[in-house]
Structure formats: structure tokens, C-alpha cells
Design a protein that fits this description.
16% of the residues lie in helices and 41% in strands. With 655 residues, it is α+β, with helices and mostly antiparallel strands.
């Protein structure tokens, strides 16, 4: 589909080829259709005014030619009448009459008739031309509106909308101002007077008073202002460069075929009728040899090019074009995640990313620090971007999910060492002396190291999400367990009347017990070693865990230390005032329905446990400590829940 400008060029070309007034009429009608269709297009309306003037000039030329070289027309036929149509004699050329005997010479009467016909035809053409001019006035020029206060505006003239002043109209007697803008709706204030609404974005002030004047234009998306001086019968001249906010201002002061151009566009070049006219400086650019015709004016910058139509006026005039020209660019932020916040110079933008990106239009020209953040993701480093006028800047960020856990790394430990996290078995050290634990919750944790024949060790560490804690060097070095020294004979002390006798060895025969809660076994209080074998004869069942349980330091049903074997783990819990606290958890997988050997060594400040599966060897589960507790005080027994049945082999207790 062709543009309106292309259509106007075709109309203008057809006008120049027209040979009669009748050929101009459909072209004029098409021009009016374009005027109504593109009523809001500033450039198109100016171009329409130019083409309309070409139609008027071509019509005048056809009328003048018709007066000197009349042709056969309907008017001549009307003058002769139907009864004389057959008597008409064609015109002959004198140089050809000598060679044609069949052509009769034209007499004086025929010459007079031709003159009369030509006069009548000229009158008809003149009447038609006058009719076209009046129709153009009605379609394109509205009645002028008087300025509300001529004294306040400082101009003896009119404020009226114009679509382009045809050169055929009467020019103003003195200097004039014409302003065209696409900042609509808008208002204009002249010499500080009250703002007046612009109609169709156009203003005309005829016969300006001599002196200094100023104009302030305010539109929806921008504003502009300029000042100028007027002297009698000379073109108005700007006193300085015009200014505009989000608007390009172009002024041309014309008189006697020459002009002076000024603009607020920086680093701009002027082009007149597709020919470079020069760079526009702060003092303007002289435009010579404009003549008495209209011109295509272009203001070209590095990033864009704006076009205007400079219409000729016989009287001195200041023509001002104000075109929307936002001093902004656009910014595209690509984050790859929806719902991310974008901050410009530390201030969050009102919208979040959608489909992984955010487009921010109308960003003022300048430098910006851009950040992207989203909960659950690591904030990428901020980036700096330079937003340029009329250009689109693009930044790309990569959001990575923030880790929710920490990790533990053990280096240089003895192979086979068990690593416990908060007294729970986690992993064993490999042959290379290293071990790793992932998914450690952030916070404070104790890291324990245990190995047969070596003293256990425990260190405290703080874990942060996404960080790796390394335990190495002296923290993983374990000392060999020293052999107990031979007992030293103690001198026999005199018996004291109230001294408690040392506990005697106790043997309890094997038995079978059915569920019923806490089963207390009559063993003496005090330090010593318990050795026995347990077997779950009946228990577990649907949705119930099979487990063997025993306890020490029993005070009541709300205070004791509980030991459990469930086929997966060996667990030690301290129950205090009815609240359970896990002290130890290690892997131990023999089935409770098989015989499990148990050996417990009680000391005031610790409990050492050894376990043995059926046909297996003893496995040292290490000591359990609890500050402020005395494990030798209280009772020993079994905890049998529900309908479980537990068999106990002969139980031995010794010091």
C-alpha cells in the first residue's frame, strides 16, 4: 500500500500533465479526500497545501492558454446552433492552402465568429476557476478568530488555525508569525498573556507590532518557547536559540527570498529540497536563494531525520515548527525469570519482569545503574548502561537459584573414621582421607569423629547457606586410646559405719516379657557393666515399627535415658520432664527379630554401648554424654510397647 506522500506526488505529476480544467477537477476532489483522511497528520497537511497551490497555478495557466488558442468546444456548438452544424468549415493553415484545392479560404465572417467563440470560452473558464477558488476557501480555511486581547499579546492580528496559506490569498501587510505543531491538544501564550487553546495545532499572528515578543507553547507530551524581535516591514528575528522539552523546535525567518534557520536540535544538518544546506550552529544557518516557491526542509541528526514543508509568503514571516521529540530512549532488561524486581539507580521500577524480561519505554537520556533481584535467587552484580536519545539499550542478567543448604568437607582424616553431625552418623571417611556431607541446614552444628582404638573428638562449626565448611588438620587428628594402667592396690581403709557397700555382681536368668510399658529389672545403682541379649519375638506388624528398647537412669516415666534398635539405626534419647532430646544416632541394621548382643558401661558422666548382631562381632557405638547428668543413678530396665514380646537372655551386671 502506497503512503499518502506517494499519492500526493502522483497527483502533482498528473496536475502538471493536465491539458484542461476538466482534468483538474477529479484531482482536486482526490486532494480533498486525502485532507479529510489524514487530518491529524502534520506533514501530510502541509504537503496537501503545496499540491493544492500547484492545481491553482495550473488552472490559471490553462485559462491563459485557452484565451489565445481557443479550441472547438461545446460553447462554439451552442453559438452556431444545430441547423448550422453541417456548415462549419475547419480552420486551414496558410502554408497548406496552396497545395489543397478542396479547402476554401476563411473569410472575414469566419474570423469574427472564432473570436466570439474564444471570448465566450475564456469567460466560462474564468467562472470555473473562480468557483474552484471559493470551494477551496470553504473546505480549508475557517473564519478567523480575533485574539482575546491584542494589547496583551503585543500583536495586532489574529489567532486562527490554518492548513497552509495559499499563495493566491492576500498576504498580510506587515510581518507575521505562523506556528505548526503536533503537540495536541495544546495551548499557547503570547507575551505572557493567558494561555489559549490551539486549534488543530496551528497558530497565525498577522501584522505583528514592532518590539520584543515571546511565545510559550505547552502540549500533552512536551513544551517549547522562543523569543523574537519585530521591526517595521522586516522579518521577525529570534533573539536566541529556541528551547524545547521533549520537542524539536525549528524556526525560519524569511524575507525577499532569503531566510535564517534556528533550532534547538544539537549537531543538526539542514537539507533543502534534498540538497545539503549546511550545519546549524547556535547562531543559526543562512538559507539563500529560496525564491518565491515552497521547499522541502529536512533537519537531520545522527539518530533521526525530521521533514517539514516551508511555504513561501510574499510578506516577511517567521515560520515555526514544533514537533514531538522526546529526549528519551528505551531500556530492555533480560533476566530469564518472571517476577524479578528491576532497580534503576536504586529505585524499584513499578513493574516486574514478564516472560523473563522487562521493557521500560521513555527513559530519560543518561547513565543508570541497573540491578535485578528476586527472592530465592542470588543477586547478580549490578550493571551500568547509557541510555541514548531515540535508541534502545539492552542488558542481560543471569539469575541463579540461591542455595538453601550448606555443606561439610572433611580432609586428611584417618580412613574409616565415622563422621557424626550433631551426634548422628552421617558418613565414613574414604581411603583418601576425605568425606563430604551436603544439605546441611544453616546454623550451629557439632562435628564428631570416631574410630575404633582412638579417642573420639568433637568440634563446633557455624554453617551458612551456600557455604562449605572444611574440617582438616589438627581438628581431624585422633589420638590412640591409651591402655588402662594396672590397678594400684589400695590400702584397706577402716570401715565406716554409714559407707555404702560397692555393688555386687548380679545375674538375672533369661525370660520372655510381653508389652506393658516400662519393665524394671532389679539391678544395683552405681557404675558397672550390663551384658545381655535381646530378641523381638513378636511385634511390629502393619504400620508399626519393629524395635528393641532399654533404658538407664530411670527416675520416673518422664525422666530417663532410652536406647533403641530399629533395624536401621541405633538411637539414644534423653527424656527429661516428658520431652525427648536425641543424644546419638548411628547406623545399625540387624533385624530386631534376630538376637542382638548388648553391652553397656555406665559411668557417672557417660554411657558406652557396644552391640553385636547374630554371628557378628562387637561394634563400638561410642560414648554418650549429657552435662549435669549422673547415669549411675536410677534404674535399669526394658521398654516394651503394645503387644510386643521380647526375649531376654541371662543378664550379667558387674563392676
Amino acid at each position: 500500500m502506497s503512503s499518502p506522500m506517494d499519492e500526493l506526488r502522483r497527483i502533482e505529476s498528473a496536475v502538471r500533465r493536465a491539458q484542461s480544467i476538466e482534468e483538474l477537477r477529479p484531482l482536486f476532489d482526490r486532494l480533498q479526500t486525502l485532507r479529510r483522511t489524514f487530518i491529524d497528520d502534520f506533514d501530510v497537511q502541509l504537503a496537501i497545501g503545496q499540491v493544492q497551490q500547484v492545481i491553482v497555478d495550473q488552472g490559471r495557466l490553462l485559462m491563459e492558454n485557452a484565451g489565445h488558442a481557443p479550441t472547438e468546444s461545446a460553447a462554439s456548438l451552442l453559438e452556431e446552433g444545430p441547423e448550422r452544424a453541417d456548415d462549419r468549415v475547419p480552420h486551414s493553415h496558410p502554408s497548406r492552402d496552396r497545395h489543397r484545392d478542396d479547402v476554401q479560404p476563411i473569410d472575414a465572417r469566419s474570423w469574427k465568429r472564432s473570436i466570439y467563440i474564444g471570448a465566450i470560452f475564456a469567460i466560462i473558464l474564468f467562472a470555473l476557476f473562480f468557483y474552484l477558488i471559493q470551494m477551496a476557501r470553504k473546505l480549508n480555511i475557517e473564519p478567523p478568530q480575533q485574539a482575546s486581547n491584542g494589547a496583551q499579546t503585543g500583536a495586532q492580528g489574529q489567532i486562527k488555525p490554518v492548513a497552509g496559506t495559499p499563495s493566491g490569498t492576500v498576504a498580510p501587510a506587515g510581518p507575521s508569525l505562523r506556528l505548526y505543531t503536533d503537540l495536541v491538544p495544546g495551548s499557547v501564550s503570547v507575551d505572557g498573556g493567558p494561555p489559549q487553546d490551539l486549534q488543530d495545532g496551528q497558530l497565525e499572528l498577522d501584522t505583528l507590532k514592532p518590539g520584543a515578543h515571546s511565545v510559550q507553547l505547552n502540549g500533552r507530551s512536551g513544551d517549547a518557547s522562543f523569543s523574537f524581535n519585530v521591526q517595521d516591514k522586516t522579518a521577525p528575528r529570534l533573539t536566541g536559540p529556541p528551547s524545547g522539552n521533549n520537542a524539536m523546535v525549528v524556526t525560519v525567518s524569511t524575507q525577499d527570498g532569503s531566510g535564517q534557520l534556528m533550532t534547538n536540535a544539537q549537531d543538526a544538518t539542514a537539507i533543502v529540497d534534498d540538497k545539503p544546506a549546511g550545519a546549524v550552529t547556535a547562531t543559526g544557518l543562512a538559507l539563500n536563494d529560496l525564491g518565491i516557491i515552497d521547499h522541502n526542509l529536512q533537519i537531520k541528526r545522527a539518530h533521526d531525520e525530521q521533514r517539514f514543508i516551508l511555504t513561501y509568503t510574499p510578506a516577511p514571516a517567521l515560520t515555526v515548527f514544533v514537533k514531538s521529540d522526546p529526549n528519551t530512549g528505551s531500556l530492555v532488561v533480560v533476566a530469564g525469570e518472571d517476577g524479578a524486581d528491576v532497580l534503576l539507580n536504586g529505585k524499584p521500577y513499578r513493574r516486574k519482569t514478564e516472560r523473563g524480561e522487562l521493557r521500560i519505554p521513555s527513559v530519560k537520556v543518561g547513565s543508570y545503574a541497573v540491578q535485578v533481584t528476586k527472592a530465592g535467587f542470588i543477586d547478580p552484580k549490578p550493571q551500568t548502561v547509557q541510555v541514548k536519545k531515540g535508541e534502545e539499550a539492552r542488558l542481560e542478567f543471569h539469575l541463579e537459584p540461591a542455595p538453601k543448604f550448606a555443606s561439610l568437607q572433611v580432609l586428611g582424616a584417618l580412613p574409616g573414621t565415622m563422621i557424626l553431625l550433631d551426634n548422628n552418623y552421617a558418613v565414613s571417611v574414604g581411603p583418601d582421607g576425605s568425606a563430604a556431607i551436603a544439605n546441611v541446614k544453616p546454623g550451629e552444628h557439632s562435628v564428631g569423629l570416631r574410630h575404633d582404638g582412638y579417642d573420639a573428638k568433637q568440634v563446633q562449626r557455624s554453617f551458612k547457606a551456600g557455604a562449605t565448611v572444611t574440617v582438616a588438620g589438627p581438628d581431624v587428628a585422633l589420638a590412640k586410646t591409651a591402655a588402662p594402667p594396672p590397678p594400684v592396690p589400695q590400702p584397706t581403709a577402716p570401715a565406716q559405719a554409714n559407707a555404702a557397700p560397692p555393688p555386687e555382681p548380679v545375674t538375672i536368668p533369661g525370660s520372655l516379657h510381653k508389652g506393658g510399658g516400662f519393665l524394671l529389672l532389679h539391678t544395683p545403682k552405681g557404675p558397672g557393666r550390663y551384658t545381655f541379649t535381646l530378641q523381638l519375638r513378636k511385634g511390629g506388624g502393619f504400620l508399626k515399627t519393629k524395635r528393641l528398647q532399654w533404658f538407664v537412669a530411670f527416675q520416673d516415666t518422664k525422666n530417663y535415658v532410652l536406647f533403641q534398635v530399629d533395624g536401621k539405626h541405633f538411637t539414644v534419647r534423653r527424656v527429661e520432664n516428658g520431652k525427648s532430646n536425641e543424644l546419638q544416632k548411628l547406623p545399625f541394621d540387624p533385624d530386631p527379630e534376630d538376637s542382638i548382643g548388648v553391652q553397656i558401661s555406665l559411668k557417672p558422666n557417660s554411657v558406652d554401648t557396644r552391640l553385636k548382631a547374630l554371628n557378628g562381632s562387637w561394634q563400638d557405638m561410642g560414648p554418650v554424654t549429657s552435662p549435669g547428668s549422673d547415669f549411675t543413678q536410677g534404674k535399669f530396665g526394658l521398654l516394651i510397647s503394645g503387644n510386643d514380646e521380647v526375649g531376654v537372655s541371662t543378664l550379667h551386671f558387674s563392676k
